[in-house]
Design a protein that fits this description.
Elements: E1 20-22, E2 35-37, H1 42-48, E3 53-55, E4 61-65, E5 67-69, E6 74-77, E7 82-89, H2 92-97, E8 100-101, E9 106-107, E10 117-118, E11 129-146, E12 149-151, H3 153-165, H4 169-178, E13 181-212, E14 220-243, H5 255-261, E15 269-278, H6 285-295, H7 326-332, E16 341-347, E17 352-358
Parallel strand pairs: 9-15
Antiparallel strand pairs: 1-2, 3-4, 5-12, 6-11, 7-11, 8-10, 11-13, 13-14, 13-15, 16-17
Helix pairs in contact: 3-4
Domain MACPF: 131-234
Pfam family, one: DUF7431
Domain DUF7431: 299-368
Length: 368
């Protein structure tokens, strides 16, 4: 039985200093009063937003459930969680490039590819018209949920079967069914998207006057005047997308009413995904290592650098530090990643090539 909805319809009217809702009675003398909690229910949010399902590379929820959220999860209220951001789209190229906005939830771009849900392509006609679009986002964060994941038995079984098959393509099938990654921290709340178009039209007004003289005459007089200095500047702001909250009519949108509906956690949506991990990360350590061995290694980073170096006999060798980006360094310094570095040194003068594997202490940056 789901008791989430019991006596919580008037959550927004409860005194903010009291998280308990009182059931009123006409005759309360001598009666006991029953208090019911109106706090956000993380289990309700988990089921509604399928938080135990992985996310595919297309940023869609997976078809199969792979995990169970453990009971020691932590929900934290966000105080004064309203903030605004703006995206400027000036040129036709920008409009095409940004026509897929992050409309379901923000994703940490350091970890994720951008969420891509289309908000509509702008048809730019080849006219003498400059259109500047400003997209304003009102974000209302209400709470964050941090959690740990326990892999389901069925998911573990399919992983073991893929390992035993010795066919890496079976892991691709697992990713297609269970997703590629899963966030371990969610921000709940709502988002409202507004667009404002500033349209400057360079208009040319043409006035034509035509006169015919006589019904049977072939004489026709035409007068044409053209005004090239008439510019029209129009500005329009409208809401075009809502995430979370009551789904009001965007054509007659009242942001205050919509934001007030977010006081009821049942109207919350996921507005930010954080701390993503691979779907194979929560597996037991020994099984996770077998997955890595089965899939094999892939190239994370390649780079070519030119360096002047003169080899002098009996001289102290010079140290050449490898120029590796910070995000790649964090990966290779993780001993569980079991990364390898290979280098090729080419002497253009002597036309000699040296291949080697770089061995380095985990506490230091790789170098030659």
């Amino acid at each position: 039985m789901n008791d989430t909805f019991s006596f919580t319809n008037k959550v927004g009217q409860i005194n903010n200093n009291n998280i308990l809702a009182e059931i009123a009675k006409e005759d309360e003398e001598g009666d006991k009063i029953l208090y019911l909690k109106s706090e956000p229910d993380w289990k309700f949010l988990k089921d509604k937003h399928k938080l135990e399902y992985g996310i595919a590379s297309t940023l869609e929820k997976a078809n199969k459930k792979a995990f169970t959220i453990m009971e020691d999860c932590k929900m934290t209220e966000i105080v004064d969680g309203c903030k605004y951001s703006t995206i400027e789209i000036d040129s036709e190229e920008d409009q095409i490039m940004k026509n897929d906005l992050l409309l379901a939830a923000d994703i940490d771009t350091k970890d994720f590819v951008k969420l891509s849900t289309s908000f509509g392509r702008f048809n730019i006609k080849k006219t003498n018209c400059d259109a500047n679009l400003t997209c304003t986002i009102s974000e209302y964060g209400k709470a964050t949920l941090k959690f740990r994941l326990q892999p389901d038995i069925e998911f573990i079984k399919e992983v073991k079967d893929a390992i035993e098959s010795k066919d890496p393509r079976n892991f691709k099938k697992i990713i297609e069914e269970y997703g590629q990654f899963i966030p371990t921290e969610i921000t709940f709340g709502g988002k409202a998207y507004f667009k404002r178009s500033n349209i400057l039209r360079h208009c040319s007004e043409e006035n034509s006057k035509k006169f015919n003289i006589g019904l049977a005459s072939n004489i026709k007089i035409e007068s044409t005047t053209e005004n090239l200095n008439n510019n029209i500047n129009n500005s329009k702001r409208e809401c075009f997308k809502l995430i979370g909250g009551q789904q009001l009519n965007v054509n007659n949108f009242d942001e205050e009413v919509w934001a007030g509906s977010l006081n009821d956690f049942r109207y919350w949506s996921c507005i930010k995904f954080k701390n993503p991990i691979s779907i194979f990360q929560p597996l037991p350590e020994n099984l996770r290592k077998r997955v890595l061995l089965s899939i094999g290694k892939k190239i994370l980073y390649t780079n070519t650098e030119y360096h002047d170096y003169s080899l002098v006999e009996y001289a102290k060798p010079r140290v050449f530090r490898l120029n590796i980006p910070e995000n790649i360094l964090k990966i290779i310094q993780n001993k569980d990643a079991d990364c390898s570095i290979f280098a090729t040194v080419i002497d253009k003068k002597e036309k000699a090539i040296f291949n080697c594997q770089v061995i380095w202490p985990q506490s230091e940056d790789p170098s030659l």
